[in-house]
Amino acid sequence: MTHSLAYTNKELLAILQETKTIAMVGASPKWNRPSFFAMKYLQEKGYRVIPINPGVAGKEILGEKVYASLAEIPGKFEMVDIFRNSAAAGPITEEAIAVAVDKGIKVIWMQLGVINHEAAEKAEAAGLTVVMDRCPKIEFGRLNAELSWGGFNSGIISAKRRRVRLS
Amino acid sequence: MKKTKTPGFETRMIHAGTQPEPVTGARQTPIFQNTSYVFHDADHAASLFNLQTFGFIYSRLTNPTVAALEERLASLEGGRGATCCASGHAAQILAFFAIMAPGDRFVASNRLYGGSITQFGKTFKKFDWQVDFVDVDNPENVRKAIGPKTKAIFVESLANPGGVVSDLEALSAIAQAAEIPLIVDNTMATPYLCRPFEWGADLVVHSTTKFLSGNGTSVGGAVVDSGRFDWAKSGKFPGLAEPEPAYHGLSFYETFGDMAFTMQAHAVGLRDLGATMAPMNAFQTLLGTETLSLRMERHCANAKTVAEFLENHEAVDWVSCAALPASPYHDLGLKYLPLGAGSVFTFGVKGGYEAGVKVVESCELFSHLANIGDSRSLILHPASTTHRQLTEEQREAAGAGPAVVRLSIGLETVEDLIDDLGKALAATV
Hints:
The complex is a heterodimer of chains A (167) and B (429). Chain A has helices at 9-18, 34-44, 86-103, 117-125, 136-143, and strands at residues 21-25, 48-52, 60-61, 64-65, 79-82, 107-110, 129-131. In chain A, strand 1 (21-25), helix 2 and strand 2 form a beta-alpha-beta unit. Chain A has one domain (19-145): Rossmann fold (3-Layer(aba) Sandwich). Chain A is built from 5 helices and 7 strands. Chain B is of the alpha/beta class and 429 residues long. Chain B has 2 domains: 9-288, Aspartate Aminotransferase, domain 2; 292-426, Aspartate Aminotransferase, domain 1. Helix content of chain B is 38%, strand content 13%. Chain B has helices at 9-15, 42-49, 64-77, 88-99, 114-121, 139-145, 168-177, 190-193, 238-241, 252-256, 260-273, 279-290, 292-311, 330-336, 352-362, 392-397, 414-426, and strands spanning 81-85, 105-109, 130-134, 150-156, 182-185, 203-207, 221-225, 316-320, 344-349, 367-368, 378-380, 404-408. In chain B, helix 5 (114-121) links the parallel strand 2 and strand 3. The longest helix of chain B has 20 residues, at 292-311. Chain B is globular. Classes of the chains: A alpha/beta (167), B alpha/beta (429). At the A-B interface, helix 2 of A face helix 1, helix 3, strand 1 and helix 11 of B.
């Protein structure tokens, strides 16, 4: 059975609201890489993003220490965001399943263009929620009307007034 | 997981892009008559300039009222994003600016709106962008005209002024095989009558001045991106797929995926070409789109009735309107414009250039002016106005010969329009 790639706005919003900490596998220290863009944006929106990149383990990206693997992250995190190719998503998902209980992982999120049905099936069997072929930055922006600011079709039709947080 | 149901066209026409303004709760979209936007801090400013976060910097690039219209047009066309700009001509420059380099070429229909023929054939040459005009009725002509430097195919879904319908599906197959985008000017049809993306087009351009705004108040344009074209695969589109020096080596396609074109059109196109849409014009156009389906239905019904009247009139040589069964484009019209063939069409009056001028000048209710897609009915003699800059040969090819009169049928009582034209035609015999 292949995992459907259609997600309702409600499902995605619930994931983004319940998540506080994200382990980003494949985070790059180079400022003009897509993963750097996503990490910076998600930090700005209040998420803690912990970078995973064996090549630069021990160094820092955007003020966060880089780890070589999910198992090495000391605290808990609810989401694993996979910024690697579809094949690499397989072993990363297996690693996430192995430490899921210990680390409190609830969601495996694979980036735009990253689709691995076999990994998704295993993760869902282990009780994890899976999102594939999406970017949490774009979905956050889309669901909070920020994507619309750039002239993009958010697909959101609503006459409800959004709540704005006041400081 | 269940799929979210897409709301219907009429619902999107009224709601897409225009949720209530969250700070005040204003239900109608405010006119953000404003040039620039305050940053939270230096880091926020840096993120905005680096394109790392969504938000406003300066209204030459983006403006909240203009963005609302962009999202609405993207939604109505079924695209990923849209870039609004100062006019339909600006939309064409923006579209080609993203994909062309000096020395590049594109293939375009030889029956385009006269202003497009002049822009492509004369002004684009100054950028060393070269156009090959062909008769697209035979798609083979398009295939033959494509060379290694060809970067796009450009047609109008419904051509101005001739009542000509393009075979979008056949043209899209040719574009796909050549790994180049099909760009469709959908001004005359509007997304209510035709949605080129459903037939394989990659980019749609609009003069929003016409039916979208609808009342002849606001000049504007838009480029809508389907989000489906692979800008990296062929290596032909370095402006979108290669590192952009003005953004420290960022590649738009790699970083923004299906949003690359629209990001580039704002962050490079509008930034450096500067042909921005005014917020007031965006507001007027948003109001226009709210009633688009209702207006287009009446425009089409009135136009068909007037075309049938002219077809049987003794002073009229021929009528070129895809709504008429006698039109060679009738079948293509049924396929691509099933809800109606628009309201702009031409007819040939007996007696040549003089008779054409006479008809235009004898109308009382039709306004003699160079626009289309107004709630008012409009009349024009292309040979002496919009197509004046063309050669005689080009005018004939574009369906704008000496005896041709162009009508843009409005929303008035149709009997009054027929009466007015009848009197004007009587003056020619």
